[in-house]
Design a protein that fits this description.
CATH superfamily: SPOUT methyltransferase, trefoil knot domain
Largest sheet: 3 strands, parallel
Radius of gyration: 14 Å
Oligomer: single chain
Number of domains: 1
Distance between the termini: 27 Å
Strand content: 15-25%
Structural class: alpha/beta
CATH topology: Alpha/beta knot
Shape: globular
């Protein structure tokens, strides 16, 4: 789940990985309207979260591709929904941080939101291929 409508060109690339991953396990992308500051954006995000929240933040605990696969497997094995959130340009609200089951980092670098979404979608697909023993991850 992301804040703000993704740009068309970047989203087309992300959508390819979303569709690939969705053939292996349930996976979809939702976005909420941006604006109004991180408190209002956080309220909109919180209203749509299903299951446990994992917040993606450069301040979070680093996670590897196999580590993301393990995290997904934990939730798949107990049939529990998990929602990953990439916050808005101003970050995320305290309420959203407090609600997070985990805070993970893909990198200590800061990415533009659409690029972060593209990278994360590819990593979810990669994680699913690890779990299914499909020769994509090397």
């Amino acid at each position: 789940m992301t804040v703000g409508r993704p740009e068309r060109d970047t989203y087309a690339l992300s959508k390819d990985y979303i569709e690939r991953a969705a053939r292996l396990f349930p996976f979809e992308h939702h976005w909420v309207k941006d604006g109004g500051g991180k408190v209002e954006e956080g309220t909109r995000l919180l209203a749509q979260i299903k299951g446990e929240l994992v917040l993606l933040s450069r301040k979070g605990k680093p996670v590897s591709s196999p580590g993301l696969a393990r995290l997904l497997a934990e939730h798949i094995n107990i049939s529990r929904d998990i929602t990953f959130v990439i916050g808005g340009a101003d970050g995320v609200s305290n309420d959203l941080e407090d609600r997070a089951f985990r805070v993970v980092s893909m990198s200590s670098l800061t990415f533009q939101h659409d690029i972060a979404m593209l990278l994360f979608c590819e990593q979810v697909y990669r994680a699913y291929t690890i779990l299914k023993n499909i020769p994509y991850h090397r």
